[in-house]
Amino acid sequence: MDPGIISIIVVIVSILVSITLHEAMHAYTSHWLGDDTAYLQGRVSLNPIRHIDPFLTILMPLLLFMAGAPILGAAKPVPFNPARLRHDEYGAAMVAFAGPLTNLVLAGIAGLFIRLFADTASPIMVEIMALFVFVNLGFFVFNMIPFPPLDGSRVLYAFAPDGLRRLMAAIESFGLVGFLLFFFLLIGTIAPILFAVIMWFAEFILGSEVLSLIL
Question: What is the pTM of this model?
Answer without folding.
Answer: 0.90
